[in-house]
Design goal:
Number of helices: 26
CATH architecture of the largest domain: Alpha Horseshoe
Structural class: mainly alpha
Protein name: U-box domain-containing protein
Keywords: Transferase, Ubl conjugation pathway
Strand order of the largest sheet: 6-5-7
EC number: 2.3.2.27
Number of domains: 4
InterPro entries: ARM-like, ARM-type_fold, ARM_PUB, PUB22/23/24-like, RING-Ubox_PUB, Ubox_domain, Znf_RING/FYVE/PHD
Function: Functions as an E3 ubiquitin ligase.
Mean pLDDT: 80
C-alpha cells in the first residue's frame, strides 16, 4: 500500500478515521463537483490556496501536509516510491540535483510525477467544508451586529444593557464583527450612548465595545469631548478590573490622535485612577495597561508636575522590586520622565530607597533598564552631588560604573558613567575610593 494511503488511516477528520478509499466510497467527497460549492443559493468557485491561507488551521491531518515544506498540499503528486509531495516542492528538490525520494532517500527508477487526484479532492473537500462553515458563521456574526445596533437605537434601561453586553462579547471575539460595526456606522450609535447621565452599567459596556475597535479620526473626535472623557475617568475609578483596563485602552487610543487635546486629559482624577490601577498587585494585566497609559500622558510637562504632586514618584519606586520585566521597564521610563522636571528630581532625592534601587538595576536584564536607571541617577546627582555621592557609592555604584565603562554598551552610556564616576569620587580620598570600587560588595 502506498505510504500516503497508510497515513490517511491514522488521521481523523472531524473525529472519523481518514481513509482515501473509504472516504470516496462513503461519499465524504460528495457535495463537491469539479471545485464548485453552493452557498446562499449561488455556486461559486472556491480557491484551495485562498482557503488554506484564510483558515490558517493548526489541526490539518498529516496526510495533507507536504513532507518537504510541512504545509498543506494544493497540487499533490506521487513518486514511484509511493510518497506524495506538493508538485512545486518536489520539482525544486529535483532542480537541486537530487534523484532520490526525500522521505525514504531511495534512488528513483522513474521520475514521473503522478497527480494524486483522489488526495487532492479529499484535501479540497476538507478545507472547503471548514471554509464554508467559517464563512457562514462570519455572515451570521455580521448580521447579528447590525441587528444589535438597530436594537440600541430603540431600547433603554436593562434591554439596552443586555444588547450592549452581547455586542461587547461579539466584537471582542470576532474580527468580522468589529469590521461590520465600523463599516455599518455602528460606532456613532454606540458612542452616542456616552454622556453626563449615562449609567455605570451602560457606560462600562460601551467602553468595552469601543476599546475593542480600531477607531478612525472622526470617531475619536466624537469621543474626545469633556462630558464623555469625564465619564470614562469616573468609570476608571469605580469599575471592575476588566472595565478599568478597557478604559485605559480606550483613552490610550484617543490620545494617539494628532489633534489630541491635552487639557481634556490633564485630570487629577485620571492620574489617581491610573495610580490605583498600577498599585493593584492582584492584577498584573491591569498594572501593565495602567503603566502604558501613564507613560503616554506623562510625556507632557504639565502632566508630569501633576503626577509628582499626587505622590507618584515614591509609589512607583516602591513598586519596582515586585514588577514583571515589561512593567518594570515602563515604570523606569515614567520615573525617568518625571526626573526631567524639578519637582520630580526633588521627589526622587527625598525618596530614601530610590538611589539603592537604581544602582541595583544597573546592568540588569537589558540595556534599556541601565539607560533609564543611569539617567535617573544622573538627574538626582546634579541636584545634590555631595549628598548623592555618599549614598550611591555605599550602595555599590562606583563598581557598577567601572563595569559599565568596560562593557560593550552604548558610548553615550559609557560617557555618562565616566562623568558620574568622577562626581562619586568627590567626597573620598583616592585610596578609599579605590576600595569602594572593588567588585566584591557589588557581586554580593
Amino acid at each position: 500500500m502506498p505510504m500516503f494511503q497508510s497515513l490517511c488511516k491514522r488521521d481523523g477528520v472531524d473525529g472519523q478515521i481518514l481513509d482515501l478509499d473509504t472516504a470516496v466510497k462513503d461519499g465524504v467527497l460528495g457535495g463537491v463537483d469539479s471545485g464548485f460549492v453552493g452557498t446562499t443559493g449561488v455556486a461559486e468557485k472556491l480557491d484551495l490556496g485562498r482557503m488554506i491561507e484564510e483558515l490558517d488551521l493548526c489541526d490539518v491531518p498529516s496526510v495533507f501536509i507536504c513532507p518537504i515544506s510541512l504545509e498543506p498540499m494544493q497540487d499533490p503528486v506521487t513518486l514511484c516510491t509511493g510518497q506524495t509531495y506538493e508538485r512545486s516542492n518536489i520539482l525544486k528538490w529535483f532542480s537541486l540535483g537530487h534523484l532520490t525520494c526525500p522521505t525514504t532517500m531511495q534512488e528513483l527508477w522513474d521520475d514521473t510525477l503522478t497527480p494524486n487526484t483522489t488526495l487532492y479532492r479529499l484535501i479540497f473537500t476538507w478545507f472547503s467544508q471548514k471554509y464554508l462553515v467559517m464563512k457562514k458563521r462570519s455572515e451570521d456574526v455580521q448580521g447579528r451586529v447590525l441587528e444589535l445596533v438597530e436594537t440600541l437605537k430603540k431600547v433603554k434601561g436593562q434591554a439596552r444593557v443586555l444588547a450592549l453586553k452581547e455586542l461587547h462579547q461579539v466584537v471582542a471575539a470576532h474580527a468580522t464583527a468589529r469590521k461590520a460595526l465600523l463599516d455599518g456606522g455602528g460606532v456613532s450609535v454606540v458612542s452616542s450612548l456616552l454622556g453626563p447621565f449615562t449609567s455605570y452599567a451602560v457606560g462600562s459596556e460601551v467602553i468595552g465595545v469601543l476599546g475593542s475597535l480600531n477607531l478612525d479620526c472622526e470617531s475619536k473626535r466624537s469621543l474626545v469631548q469633556p462630558a464623555k472623557v469625564s465619564l470614562m475617568v469616573d468609570i476608571l475609578n469605580e469599575g471592575s478590573i476588566e472595565t478599568k483596563i478597557n478604559c485605559t485602552r480606550l483613552i490610550e487610543t484617543l490620545i494617539e490622535g494628532k489633534d489630541f487635546d491635552l487639557e481634556i486629559f490633564r485630570s487629577h482624577s485620571l492620574l489617581v485612577g491610573l495610580m490605583r490601577l498600577v498599585k493593584d498587585k492582584r492584577h498584573t494585566n491591569g498594572i501593565f495597561a495602567g503603566l502604558k497609559l501613564l507613560r503616554k500622558v506623562c510625556s507632557h510637562s504639565e502632566v508630569k508636575s501633576l503626577l509628582v504632586s499626587i505622590g507618584a514618584v515614591s509609589q512607583l519606586v516602591e513598586l519596582l522590586s515586585g514588577l514583571e520585566p515589561d512593567c518594570l521597564e515602563l515604570a523606569l521610563s515614567i520615573l525617568d520622565a518625571l526626573a526631567s522636571v524639578p519637582e520630580g528630581r526633588l521627589a526622587l532625592k527625598d525618596c530614601s530607597n530610590a538611589i539603592p534601587i537604581m544602582v541595583k538595576l544597573l546592568m540588569r536584564v537589558s540595556e534599556n533598564y541601565t539607560k533609564y536607571a543611569l539617567s535617573i541617577l544622573w538627574s538626582v546627582c546634579k541636584l545634590a552631588p555631595e549628598e548623592f555621592s555618599l549614598i550611591a557609592v555605599e550602595a555599590g555604584l562606583a563598581a557598577k560604573l567601572l563595569l559599565l565603562i568596560q562593557s560593550n554598551c552604548d558610548p553615550i552610556l559609557k560617557q555618562q558613567s565616566a562623568e558620574l564616576l568622577k562626581l562619586c569620587s568627590l567626597n573620598y580620598s583616592d585610596t578609599i575610593f579605590i576600595s569602594k570600587c572593588k567588585l566584591t560588595r557589588t557581586i554580593q
